[in-house]
Specification:
Layout: E1 2-5, H1 6-14, E2 26-33, E3 42-50, E4 53-58, E5 68-71, E6 76-79, E7 81-86, H2 123-130, E8 133-138, E9 147-155, E10 163-173, H3 175-182, H4 186-204, H5 230-237, H6 248-253, H7 255-258, E11 263-268, H8 271-283, E12 289-293, H9 301-307, E13 311-314, H10 332-338, E14 343-346, H11 358-369, H12 380-385, H13 389-394, E15 412-415, E16 426-431, E17 434-435, H14 441-450
Parallel strand pairs: 1-5, 2-5, 2-6, 7-8, 10-11, 11-12, 12-13, 13-14
Antiparallel strand pairs: 2-3, 3-4, 6-15, 8-9, 9-10, 15-16, 16-17
Length: 463
Amino acid sequence: MIRLTLAALLGASALGVAVPAAAQTIAVTGGTVALGDGSAPISGGTVVIRDGRVVAAGQGVAVPAGAQVIDATGKWVTPGIVAGFSRLGLADVDAVAAANDQRSDGPFSAALDVAPSINPNAAPVAINRAEGVTRAIVAPSTGKSIFAGQGALIDTGADGQPITRGRLFQFVELGEDGAETAGGSRSAAHALLRNALREAGQVAGGRAPARDTSGQTADDPGEGPVVANPNESRSYDARRNQDVLLTRFDAVALVPVVQGRQTLLIHAERAADLRQVIALKREFPRIRMAIVGANEGWTIAPELAASGIPVIASALTSLPGTFESVASTMSNIGRMRAAGVKVSIGTINDDEQRMAFRARWYAGNLVGLSRLPGAAGLSWGQALAAITSGPAEAMGLGGEVGSLAPGRRGDMVIWSGDPLDNLSTAEAVFIDGVQQPLETRQTKLRDRYRTLERGALPEAYRR
């Protein structure tokens, strides 16, 4: 049994060394353990990870022989944060086109796959990793269509292999942005959406599945781009109606959506738009949907709860920045959850390409909000779940990431204190059981200039 203090681990991390170099058996003992499933924290708990997966977490957990033991006494231990909505890895500098892959104005929309564009070495990825974000739901932005393309779940690890699940969902813009893209009205956006789903249904009906170059069927929600076989394309093209609006590529990409094997993630804020999404679910019952945004969700919370559609909501919007968010309130998430909505936290239109880690701050604020008379927030356990297991479950991946339940991926963070306290910091981050470096460009600049002698400064700095 190898015992390590957290200080020893931190020293290795500061040197940019990932400890351990590969997934092995790790036991973190003595800390306050939060499972991420909505339950209260557990004092003096133990977490055991073997071969990159959680074996056990809680009190009374036996430490396996030969495990590397990390003493976390006085610290907090949680699952890694899952960014409920982000664009991590798609942009380094927003204003520089060459460093920004968030959107496309080309001929394709639904067929676009965000995975090839994700840069694991982008500065925001390292920053979010250092803030305890271990996985992120990454969506493209819309260009000429209400369909932005297919998003992915990534990890923020330093191994250069970010894709956990490619082609996880199809992202659609409704509301104000969707209306503008569709031609100037919400009616146009909803008509385009329904038409596209019907076109995809025509493509799916009775055809042999096209295959991509990896041998996967084009309908499989796997990784890699969809590449249709030209001969098969001609055969199902003949069965399509003549008044089609989608390219062949886009229609094929929507087939997994209409067949209920790929989530349709819809951005909507206004209550009226949310009701249209609920109506869409009734019209296409096989489609697996999730909503992101939902600033006015609390006003129709019982209807959302009855629909069963999970919501990844903006947490602390309180002033109406748009006409579709006039009824926004900080109590939005608390009220929706109280009504039975499956709700978690995302950061759409909130520096999500850089600062997805803000979700942790928002979760802590919702705990504080629960203590204010007349306000509706979350309990501590509910708030942590809203940034860990909640987003994972909304995207159908609750059995894989987001909690410290047995069998989940070994994503774990050791914090200096309560992780929902803004003053706490991530002191050690593990992804798939491998400790990650916490060095960022910012820490390098800090270390470079913190102890620089005055004489070493350029002449301009001496005056």
